[in-house]
């Protein structure tokens, strides 16, 4: 009886201990839950959520990409301006070529034509000399056979209907030996205020000599060449130089001259001084022909290369800007997706 009661009481004691133990465990679980629930609001949610850090990185990437896009847009504007400036410079150089001057040395010149308009004056002498040495001459010397090659041409002036008489003389050729042509004219006193004889130089004497219509040839020469004069009572020394010009497919020949004048000391008797004397010398200045040509400095291949580089840079910049915008849109969509997910978690 005693053992039965003892076992029964032991069982009751164990039941009470289990009940108390389970009750304590339940109370500890509830307290732990309450402690967790109380401590949860005090924690920083940013320590457990990496989203703001990712947002900051994405923001920096967006700013950097936008800055790159602006830089490439600026470079694109500079490239476009460079292309415009290159085309403008090419057209400017193409429309305004540069004059190039070169000199060609020769031993002999083609004999030029010297057209003199003596009017009422008479040719007294025409001789060839060399090395700048002119022999003494007499005041009444007549023109000798073989001294000069001359031809008289009568034609109507291009700017008036008056008849013009021209005495065309074959000019000097040997520039190395300083060949010159010396001419002397005589004219009676007239009522004119100024006394002078006009002359004109043209490129080749052979052109006039071989022309079928010499009068028309002289009319064209008078239109295209300049006229000069030399005065009476002086010896005029004319030094010629030849200039050939090639511009826009048109070739032209121009004479340039340097002249010096020396007074003639008239020692004739008083009754012969009524006839005025004219002296003129024609000689080449130097053995060089000046050649003037138009040179287009615009290089089309250089311009094409620059334009190709500019357009390539434009296409590359446009491609980069397109990819950058797509990347920015993608990053923005991803950020919006993460933000919406966070809002769903909070709710």
TrEMBL record:
Instruction: Indicate, by first and last residue, each region the UniProt record lists as having compositional bias (Polar residues).
Output: 20-30
**According to Swiss-Prot or TrEMBL, what is its membrane topology?**
Multi-pass membrane protein
Q: Pfam families, alphabetically?
A: TMEM206 (PF15122)
Instruction: List the taxonomic lineage.
Output: Eukaryota, Metazoa, Chordata, Craniata, Vertebrata
Superkingdom: Eukaryota
Protein name stated in the entry: Proton-activated chloride channel
Can you list the GO cellular component terms from the UniProt entry?
chloride channel complex; plasma membrane
Annotated region (Disordered), positions in chain = 1-44
**Which species is listed as the source?**
Chanos chanos
């Amino acid at each position: 009886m005693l053992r039965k009661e003892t076992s029964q009481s032991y069982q009751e004691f164990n039941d009470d201990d289990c009940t108390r133990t389970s009750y304590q465990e339940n109370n500890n679980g509830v307290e732990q839950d309450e402690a967790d629930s109380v401590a949860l609001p005090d924690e920083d949610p940013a320590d457990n959520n990496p989203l703001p850090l990712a947002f900051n990185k994405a923001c920096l990437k967006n700013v950097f990409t936008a800055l790159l896009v602006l830089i490439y847009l600026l470079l694109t504007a500079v490239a476009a301006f460079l292309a415009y400036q290159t085309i403008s410079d090419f057209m400017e150089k193409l429309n305004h070529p540069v004059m190039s001057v070169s000199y060609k040395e020769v031993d002999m010149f083609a004999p030029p034509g010297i057209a003199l308009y003596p009017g009422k004056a008479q040719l007294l002498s025409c001789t060839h000399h060399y090395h700048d040495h002119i022999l003494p001459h007499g005041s009444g010397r007549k023109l000798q056979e073989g001294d000069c090659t001359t031809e008289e041409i009568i034609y109507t002036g291009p700017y008036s209907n008056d008849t013009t008489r021209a005495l065309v003389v074959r000019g000097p050729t040997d520039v190395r030996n300083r060949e010159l042509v010396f001419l002397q004219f005589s004219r009676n006193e007239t009522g004119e205020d100024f006394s002078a004889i006009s002359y004109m130089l043209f490129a080749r004497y052979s052109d006039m000599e071989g022309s079928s219509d010499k009068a028309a040839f002289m009319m064209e020469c008078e239109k295209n060449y300049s006229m000069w004069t030399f005065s009476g009572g002086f010896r005029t020394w004319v030094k010629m130089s030849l200039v050939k010009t090639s511009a826009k497919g048109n070739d032209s020949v121009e004479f340039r001259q340097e002249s010096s004048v020396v007074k003639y000391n008239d020692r004739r008797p008083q009754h012969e001084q009524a006839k005025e004397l004219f002296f003129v010398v024609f000689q080449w200045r130097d053995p060089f022909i000046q050649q003037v040509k138009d040179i287009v400095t615009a290089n089309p291949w250089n311009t094409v290369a620059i334009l190709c580089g500019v357009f390539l840079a434009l296409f590359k910049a446009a491609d980069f800007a397109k990819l950058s915008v797509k990347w920015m849109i993608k990053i923005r969509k991803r950020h919006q997706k993460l933000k919406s997910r966070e809002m769903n978690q909070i709710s």
